[in-house]
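How a chain folds remains the central question behind the approach discussed here. For one protein, we set the task of working out the structure tokens from the amino acid sequence alone. The sequence in question and its structure tokens are set out directly beneath this paragraph.

_____
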Amino acid sequence: MIKNFLNSPTRKRLAENFLSLSGLQAVNYLLPLITLPYLVRVLGPEKFGLIVFAQSFIEYFIILTDYGFNLSATREISIHRNNKEKVCEIFSSVMTVKFLLGILSFIILALILIFIPKFRNDQLIYLFTFGMVLGNILFPVWFFQGMERMKYITILNIIAKGIFTVCIFIFIRKMADYPYVPLINSMGFLVAGGLSLRIVSKDFGIKFILPSFEAIKHQLKEGWHVFISTMAISLYTVSNAFILGLFTNNTIVGYYSAAEKIVRAVQGLLTPVSQTVYPYISKLASESKERALSFIRKLVVFVGSGSFIISLLIFILAAPIVDIVLGSQYQSSIIVLQILAFLPFIIGLSNIFGIQTMLTFNLKKDFSRILVSAGLLNISLALILSLLYQHIGVSIAVLTTEIFVTISMFICLKKKGIKIFGTLKVWEHMKKF
């Protein structure tokens, strides 16, 4: 079976998608490493912290408008990709829901900016940052993933990141230029979103049709558990900088966020694996659950070994990394980077246990329960530890929560009779991968 897979068109398609997404992640990794050292030095911890706090706040609206479609709609597009009429129906109903949620998001933002002083004082920053939500609505990543045409995601994201990077060095020269950072970022998102819709229409021949109420209802139902899970995940990802900003100050947010961005950038190197194999595993499981599980087992060894080495290097080299990337103003970020260093390894495993396995084997409710529990755990820990230990406390809360998620998912799968590690030895997996 393995030889057939290695010589199949499926392998070639997966390899092409993986290389496309790897190219994207390389850009996502390299460009921030170019702009981050420049921004943190020009803006300083306080203004950099404000920008990150605004992004953390606006991220909630991105999650709301995504509504879990990056997984639920991806799966549906993947299954029905050869039925153009069905794909048009899925595309139209998902885009309709996203636009309606976008309108709701802007109304909520407007009310917050009007009535809450902390946000009213920096209205322009939040309005400029909201452009990310609009660009994200326009960019149907879930469509390209479902069609397994990831090269479009790569090209469009490179355009968006390229616009941001070039404009940062042109227009951001002093601390007073900080309001232009979210504006430039949103411009990149909007350009990529507009171009993506043109590609969907021109290259794939997908036209928008007025969706039926039943089609909209179906998409809302399909995405619900993933949406709840994503919201729960946000309680221990974007919420951390947000909580720090509420209970401390922008400078502390800057210390934490600068180190976290380094870890998240490295963690992003694993994203191509997840995005590439998810549609494949979904389709494979619909044909043979045994073959899907066999593939997942090999994935655990491949991702686990690679991410562990990366995490270990971050932990050991934390001090020189901070000195080189962030500068002398961010010495308080070293301990944060060391605490968060093993997130790529821990999250790499939880992604396989959760998204690749639990969702594939229709354990959506268990998946949601674990993430909701984790979100509540993180919020509780972050609220307490941020008051006691500020950025260090929040880092500990994040690490604890991610460990809880990974262990809980593994135990759940074991109880359901799904043996991730199977009976093969690790070395046998690595030779056959």
Notes: The CA atoms of residues 56 and 238 lie 5 Å apart. Confidence is low (pLDDT under 50) at residues 423-433.
